[in-house]
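Practice problem: predict the structure.
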Amino acid sequence: MNFVTVAQFDNMPLAYIAKGRLEAEGIPCFIADENLVQADWFYSLAVGGIKVQVEEEFVARARAVLDTDYSASLPDSEDELEA
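Answer:
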């Protein structure tokens, strides 16, 4: 099985948000190099950050999901949240 990196991050929360988004769409994925980067932040530059990886067959779909911007659908204020 070949795995492809579809996103790279310099912090774990963003990597886990991306992972969760992919999993919500039914795309199996995993995070690589998180422990190495956690152990010493300077390794992040050497290994290319924390990577979200998927199998080759899911690459196009995963990139499309991660490239989708949902910010326009968010409410502008707390009043809209309550409605």
